[in-house]
Structures are given as structure tokens and as C-alpha cells.
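[stage:ingest] chain + small molecule (adenosine monophosphate)
[stage:ingest] validated
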Amino acid sequence: MKILVVGSGGREHAIVTSIAGSKRVSKIYCAPGNAGISRLAECVDIGVMEFDRLTAFAKEKEIDLTVVAPDDPLVAGAVDAFEAAGLRVFGPRANAAIIEGSKAFSKDLMKKYNIPTAAYETFEDAEAALAYLEKAEFPIVLKADGLALGKGVLICNSLEEAKAGVKEIMLDKHFGSAGNKMVIEEYLTGREVSVLAFCDGKTIKTMTSAQDHKRAKDGDKGLNTGGMGTFSPSPFYTDEIAEFCQKEIYQKTMDAMRAEGRDFVGVLFTGLMLTDKGVRVLEFNARFGDPEAQVVLPRMKNDIVDVFDACIDGRLDEVELEFEDNAAVCVVLASDGYPVSYEKGFEIKGLEQFDDKDGYYVFHAGTKLSEGKTVTNGGRVLGVTAKGDTLPEARANAYRATEWIDFENKYMRHDIGKAIDER
Ligand code: AMP
Ligand code: GLY
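[stage:predict] done
[stage:export] C-alpha cells:
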């Protein structure tokens, strides 16, 4: 089989690594890919939003299956474009990816179908939002409706901060048209868990759980980032909680999307908050998480291509997902200064150390090849993942492996997965 993966980050490197482990696959392409992916796949210089070029390429190379990984093309209809061209593709159509593309849509869906989430109101004009805030309790959470690189969520501790937030989102349009609408919601506290699930439109099967660390600095300080590291599984996501979520959240969401004529086929990412009043959904994403994929996929035992096929063909009920009975930790190596400003173009040394070590992975996020060398090319540069029998062991292994890598301005958090030891 020939497979094309659309995307270029650490998540896509993890997906390509899983696909490369399938006996059914003879050739992998990735558009546009990155330096690490190019060791497993032929990278082609086509952007993720260039649907005409992507579908023409897939036809020309007689690609058997395309996997669209990032949110932007999914929300903009990449899967619809492939289907219209008669091509086989894995991912939700635009009418289902809206569960990530519009926070107002996903909140209204949860309200309509009684799926537990934070209380909220939706606003289309700034005046009404400001009037609402005058009577609100703080902290409160403001969310730009549309896609904003994971940065469109503001947690405001006072009325002043919230007013400034409304201005930023709706008037100054910091997040562009994503801020044409806004959700204001109740602030929740608790432990966050990310659960990825394969979906075929009717059946939803969850993968092992994970937790992301979104803040830039140790102790969950600093600005929100795309994610500074992950661990899997989450010890806080107990069987009892999982059972509740399967019934009251995952299957209900699947059924709700189907009832709305928006069958969801692909990977549904549920961001959960385990509050002392019970589980609440923070968000849905229409794709694998990044860096969640970097700890979840290395632990998956199934042939991922079989699972993609089962989702597309509506046979997911026949599949049993299996995960290793161990743990994994991913520490992101970033460029110092991320997520604000940082330098790029520094040579990365030590990558070859991972070649002969089972259970260790170095997933490339922002890298590129320059004159035969791999150099830094983004805020998040690499994701170093290691497995272990237990979470503390996986964590020790991952941090040991971060020392194999060297580049100028290398920055990482030192407490990924640390809460586990404090239990
Ligand atoms: P979202 O993109 O909706 O997941 O929001 C990004 C991050 O903001 C989440 O992972 C949480 O850390 C935080 N967040 C979102 N909604 C809430 C909420 N209602 N209460 C507290 N924190 C939240
Ligand atoms: N790690 C969060 C996300 O992928 O959106």
C-alpha cells in the first residue's frame, strides 16, 4: 500500500512512525513533512492547505490512503476534497470537524445532548459580552470561537482582565476571524486528561489516556504553548471515570453528531477536566493531539492502517484496540523564548543516538535539513519520548534521552509527569 500523510509536526512524525510499522505499507509520502519524517517517508513540498495539489499528487502517485492530521485542513474541508476526487482518506469531513472549528458549535452540541461541560454563553458582539461580564464571577474563561493555534483561550482573574480580553478577541481581532464569535464560560479546576478515540461515525473506541503540559515553564507557570510535554497513561483517569465517560461523553457525542447529520469519522480528541463535581469536557478536537500522539501511538499494539481502514469502512466494532501495559513520557525540546520569540537555524546534534535504542523516539516538530545538517526551524523543535514499565521510569528514561541531544538555545521543562511522584 502507498500512504500519504498530510502535516509536518511531531504528531505527524509519530503517525508516520506507526504507519512505517505496518506490514501492509510499501511506501509513505508526507506533505510537507520535516527532516525527521524524511527518514521514513518521501517528503513532498506541498502545503497542507493546497487541496488541489494534494489531490493531484495522490492521483498521480496512485496513493491508496491519505491521512489528514492537522486541524486547519480538516476544518477547511481537506477530507471532502479528497472524497470529491474519488480518493480514499482518513479524517472527519468539514461538517464534522466543526466540533473543533467552532467552540460555539461544540458547546451548543453538548448542551443539546446533555454532555457534561462548563456552563457558558455565546456572544456575537462585544457590547453584550461586556455587559454579561459586569455581573459575572471571576476567574472566568474567554474563548475565541474559531481556530487560534490553541491560543484563543484566555483565563481572566478580574473584570478588567476580562474586558481587555473581549477587546483583544472581538475588537482588535488578535485571532483574526476566529474572534467573530466568542464563548464565555465557567472556570473549572481539577486535573486535565486528554483522551483520543478512533471513530467510524457510529462506534467510538478510546485509546490509552494522556496528559499534556501546556504552560511554558516549570510548575505550570508562564504562557500557554502548543504543549511542552505529555505522559501516558494518566493515573488519574481511573476505570470508573473511563466507564462514565464512555457512556456519558464519548458515545453520546458520536450519537449526537450522527443525529445532526455530521457523522464523525476519524480521531476525536476529548479534553477533560476531572473536577470535584465530576468530569467536564473542556474541548473537542477533530484529530490526534500534539504532543499526545507522541506518547499514545508508541504504546499502541494494533496495525494502525487496519484501524484507519476499519474507521473508513464503518467496521470499528470489529476492532479491539490494544495498548502496551507500560508508560511513556514525551519531553518537548523547544527554542528558548518560545512561545514569544526565538532564533532558528542552529545545528542539532545527537539525533543518531536514538537509532539503535528500543523504546526511545525523537519526533521532529520544527526542524529542517540545511546543507546536509538538521537544524532548528521552529519554537517546538523535538519531542523526546521514552517508555518505561512505570511512569516514573518512563520519565527518568525520557529525561536521560534529552541529554543525548544538543543545540543552541535548547529549552525544556523539567517537571513533565512530575505530579505522578507526588501522589
Ligand atoms: P481549550 O482549547 O478549550 O482546551 O483550552 C485550552 C486550555 O485552557 C485547556 O487545556 C485548559 O487548560 C484551559 N481551559 C479551557 N477551558 C477552561 C475552563 N472552563 N476552566 C479552566 N481552564 C480552562
Ligand atoms: N495538545 C493539545 C492539542 O493537540 O490540541
